[in-house]
Amino acid sequence: MKIYINFLLLLLIPTLGLAQQQKTLHQTFEIEEVERLNFDLYDEIEVEKWEGNTVLTETKIEVHDATKGIFNHFVKEGRYEILLADTPSAKVSKTEQYALNEDYFNEDATSTTPDPQEIVEEEMEEAAAPAGPQEGVVYLTSKDSDRKPIRTRTGECLEIVKVRIFIPQEFNQSGQNSYFRTLPDEDDED
Fold first, then answer.
1. Which helix (H) or strand (E) holds 49?
2. Of 12, 6, 19, nearest to 152 (Cα)?
3. Cα gap 41→21, rounded to integer Å
4. Which of 26, 111, 133, 172 has a Cα-to-Cα distance from 83 of 20 to 30 A?
5. Which secondary structure element, helix H or strand E, spans residue 60, and what is its range?
6. What are phi and psi of 112, to 5 degrees?
7. Which of 115, 132, 126, 149 is nearest to 41 (CA)?
8. What is the pTM of this model?
9. Per residue in 18-39, is it b (16+ CB within 10 Å) or e — as a string?
10. Cα 81 to Cα 90: distance, rounded to the nearest angstrom
11. Each residue of 49-60: pLDDT tens digit?
12. Domains in the chain, number
């Protein structure tokens, strides 16, 4: 019986180091002179208005099947960091990704890949934004905009990242990931 218990313990030891790792990161950005705020983030985002005069981001990270050391390494390297920039990030658009993948399919093959035109119409409009910096326009972008999966000896890790962005109340939505500042009327102050 002791041999049986010892054998089970030996089988379980490798799995003890792999658990769900989680962390919440907060970042604050000063945006006093900003008229337009755009989001170009890799992760799922939720935007909320608040009374503050800065932008606050809350990034909730969960990585399953990774050791604490691996998880801490990716956090320390800035995998989940958000940057404030005056130009959008230069990541590969989804249209370009589909064009690269078309080489793998010949005309006779059937693919469940949707038509790229249907998927990226909105994103192409966003990509048509001017390339250089514009006065009063800033972008919140992901530091790691080409996030490759985390792999360990046991396989690929499940990674769940959700970003809540708190923006000042005077910003109103003008597009899918774009907000503009509305200045208070001078008549309202009288």
1. strand 44-50
2. 19
3. 22
4. 172
5. strand 54-66
6. -90, 5
7. 126
8. 0.66
9. beebeeeeebebebeebbbbbb
10. 16
11. 999 999 999 999
12. 2
Q: Can you tell me whether residue 183 is helix, strand or coil?
A: coil
Beta-carbon neighbour count of residue 59 at 10 Å? Answer: 22
Same-domain pairing of 180 and 109: no
State whether 80 and 153 are in the same domain: yes
In what helix (H) or strand (E) does residue 110 lie, and over which residues does it extend? none
Shared domain for 111 and 152, answered yes or no, is: no
Helix (H) or strand (E) holding 8: helix 2-16
Asked if residues 21 and 62 have their Cβ atoms less than 8 Å apart, the reply is yes
Cβ count within 10 A of residue 101: 12
- Which of 23, 8, 114 has the alpha carbon at shortest distance from 72? 23
Q: What is the CA radius of gyration of the chain?
A: 22
Task: Note the residue count of the chain.
Answer: 190
Residue whose entry in the numeric block shows the structure tokens 């050791």: 67
**106 with 81, same domain?**
no
| 145-186 pLDDT per residue, tens | 889 999 999 899 999 999 999 999 999 999 899 999 997 765
Half-sphere exposure of 150 (CA within 13 A, CB side): 21
Measured over the CA atoms of residue 16, residue 17, residue 20 and residue 25, the dihedral's sign is positive
